[in-house]
């Protein structure tokens, strides 16, 4: 048996995608022109499938700060946070993140994936019950495997299912970790945090919220869903990434207990991987200041989200359950979804294709991500591209809107 024989079916599927045109998985964006425009092959495209929620990838202050750090501190740290990879700027960013969240402790990691691995695998060992929303990100599942935790999944966004499972744990519920996300990246829906907090108050446990998609996007000052719902005091740890609203790369955890600092000595994903480069840290520090001082970016983002959501819904497409910067559109079968995704690129619009099982409930989605940097004309051009394709498609391609509301 060859080393890669176990992947034969996957290799076959990959081959089929590649030979039938643009490959939706690992699409090469050949050129990037701005936060919202680029080129794929011969097609100039509006980028409507990135996580660049506040459009800060080309922010001039962030670029200047990154260039300065590159010149003065070099291209990389060449070491982990624990060894030689903690520079003054990493510590300064931690202080700034803690202040931004008004919490005593913050830790910077190399990516959002690593932040989840680092915090959860250290906290959740083989004696720990972790109650996970079923739609949680792969990094949260992987973190539980790394720590050897006992995973109990509850139905997506179903607080009564969480409660039932907590009750079954009896006294052990008091020590359990509950993990949910702010905005979920597939459907754009949000966790029922108020109900979850109420259960936690009654039955105990600790609450971790991954605000990867909601940081910078929700809440009065952009701290995320917990801030928007006024339940921050009940959230023990907020996890986040620098790769979405903060437009760079890296991840973080902020906690309401200074004792979280000890995880720097107990977390293998903190100890055994290189720290983010000085330029990444510098751009994040700049963008964090921008988020704090420019709330109008969030307003533009939501105005654009409303415009796109309303436009696609008016065309009769089955869109996600609520207006959100993540707007999934359900498109028939896997084959129809792939053809639709390719045709959108020909129409000058790049979005993400999500096939089952990555998409919940076995549906095929094209997922749009809105940015504050999109202009009205760009949003309208995206809607127009969907309109052209709708008119070309057979009626059965227009999925039933009810199917996207779970
Ligand atoms: N958590 C969630 C909910 C995510 O959606 C993602 C990335 N899509 C991550 C964590 C990982 O973040 P990063 O890309 O910084 O590794």
Automatic annotation (TrEMBL):
Native source organism of the sequence: Pseudomonas veronii
Pfam families xrefs: Aminotran_1_2 (PF00155)
Entry-linked InterPro entries: Aminotrans_II_pyridoxalP_BS (IPR001917), Aminotransferase_I/II_large (IPR004839), AON_synthase_class-II (IPR050087), PyrdxlP-dep_Trfase (IPR015424), PyrdxlP-dep_Trfase_major (IPR015421), PyrdxlP-dep_Trfase_small (IPR015422)
Cofactor(s) annotated in UniProt: pyridoxal 5'-phosphate
Keyword annotations of the record: Aminotransferase, Pyridoxal phosphate, Transferase
Family to which the UniProt record says this protein belongs: Belongs to the class-II pyridoxal-phosphate-dependent aminotransferase family.
SUPFAM superfamilies to which the protein is assigned, alphabetical: PLP-dependent transferases (SSF53383)
Name this polypeptide is given: Aminotransferase class I/II-fold pyridoxal phosphate-dependent enzyme
Transmembrane segments: none
Gene3D superfamilies, per database record: Aspartate Aminotransferase, domain 1 (3.90.1150.10), Type I PLP-dependent aspartate aminotransferase-like (Major domain) (3.40.640.10)
Record has Hydrolase as a keyword: no
GO molecular-function term, one example from the UniProt record: transaminase activity
Keyword Transferase set for record: yes
Domain Aminotransferase class I/classII large, chain residue ranges per copy: 46-386
